[in-house]
Amino acid sequence: MSGLTQSLRFGPAAVACASLTLAAALAWLLVAPNFAAPAAPGYDAARMVLLYSTLPRLATALIAGAALSLAGALFQLVLRNPLASPTTLGISAGANLALVITLLAFPALLGFGRDLVALAGSAAAAAIVMGLGARRGFSPLSLVLSGLVISLWCGALAAVLTFLNDRYLVSLFIWGAGSLAQQSWDIPLSLLWKVAVLALLCGAIVRPLALLELGDGSAAALGVRFAYLRFFAIAIAVSLSALVTSAVGVIGFIGLVAPIVARLSGARRVGDILIWSSLIGAALLLCADVSVQLLAGAFSDFLPTGAVTAIFGTPVLLFLLRRLKMRHRVIAAPFAGLRRKLPAGRAAVLVLVAMLAAIAIAMLCGRNPDGTWQWLGGPALAELLPLRLPRVMAALASGAMLAVAGVLLQRLTGNEMASPEVLGISAGATFGLSISLFAVAASGIWVQLGFAASGAFAVLAVILAFALRAQLAPERVLLAGIALSAMVDALVGAVASTGDPRALTLLRWMSGSTYGVSAGTAMALSLAALLLVAPALLSRRWLDLLPLGPSSAASLGVPLKSARLALSCLAGLLSAVATLGVGPLSFVGLMAPHLAREAGLTRALPQMAGAALLGGALMVLADWLGRTVLFPYQIPAGLMSALVGAPFLMLLLFRKSRTTQVL
Known about the structure:
mainly alpha, ABC transporter involved in vitamin B12 uptake, BtuC, two-stranded antiparallel ribbon, 26 helices, 72% helix, 3% strand
């Protein structure tokens, strides 16, 4: 379990009371005008809105905040993982995907058992994450990485279904981002008794959870069956998360931040952590939702509260993370224990052949108008080549840049989980691009590139500054990346929920589609890839020495500050340019470096070259699958790469590796 370097000055009771008082004051500002106004004769619309919309919404915020915080506290206690929460473990994303699929395929089920559908999705996600975590001793980083993979995969599949069925799921975007808007007391009353029952069950395991602080051996000697206790506690936490997701959508960060605040304010005993986390979480979500209603006014129903909690929760989490001291397991690289099966030269040749085969398939193999398969040649090839070549070039260049950026980030931070997608760099580029769309009229490719690069650099600078303060500890870098990525995604979601027509353009671009890429854009991306990958290859000596540690690298002649700054800027620029081509949802930046290492390319230069070829091949294949699998419909390449890449990475992560305990 985590330790704390220091506590806040006030106790958990004082913090909870202060939070609830602030929430009550904000709520009174919201409802006071309606109470002060005299009742109108006959039908009073304002009073009806207060009684059947505003007050139920406030009640829902309190109940949902308490439930999510209680779930997060349970996850963190039983898994001994301060990073655990319904969002970081993919629980909420699994429930959201299950509801989307049911809404499309079996809508009648939602009328009979909406909560059961959400529970099934959450349970499936939890089973996968816990199965992967069990193979690695439930180490915090492995659980969070597995949760990120599940979240990305579920989010990508939900996005595919939304884009293919936008007529039916147009309102699902706002709900999925966490909307607390209510039209009656049905949802808060239904949620209240269910959460109350689960809270009572949680109270029954407080004593066994407290005994776990003595250690597994001591707890077992006192009669605690740890496997059963873990299953029961996780089942309660999953149920709480599923109920909230079913009622109001995905609300992030409350379940992660509230237990941390409770611990930092002095809560030590299990019962205290559970109680004060619930109260603090309820106050936090109520404050966020009332702030939305006060500031957004009539548009508050269209501004998801879940997006706001991520926006305001990120700075709080980054501040609290400096005070958190973690005991973690350092995970061996997923492929470090594998015996090299091929010499590096032969492996490089096979990687090159794989890339050429992917290009040939994408260029020559396709579908006829009647849906039959065709291998192009002759006049048909000459006719379709100008249409397919730009898409292939754009996918190839973008995939190569993401892969090289992933190698740079992994070696720079010493974190095998680092990538533009996981650390939020791609999300930062997306945010920069969204600003260009809304702030600059008719922004061109170079203007978009400048804004995207600025957003990527900003996120990367915050992450590296935060990491350097923590001696590049992998868990801190990962958590900072998760926080910033969620905040940026929430900002983009808030912009997209306004109904502006440009928001639709942004959402379609975020899916990573290469449809309609012009020859000029493809050439620009290819030229950028050549200009940016070349200096990365030339920095091979730095990249070979930096993973040895700061002192060892400096003693061998590496200028640490200038090397880190140059490599960070290069990784940010690679990510920004690639994001313009295939959007922020790709999984290539995380997967390609591991695949290159799996092939036996372990030194910096061979790994970068192999990862670039594999990353390009993966994106080309993703683009080809996207335009052929559901012909005549097309799935964007970015979403397709996430759908294909995430399960493949989970299979690789399922291989058991050695872990060592570090205090």
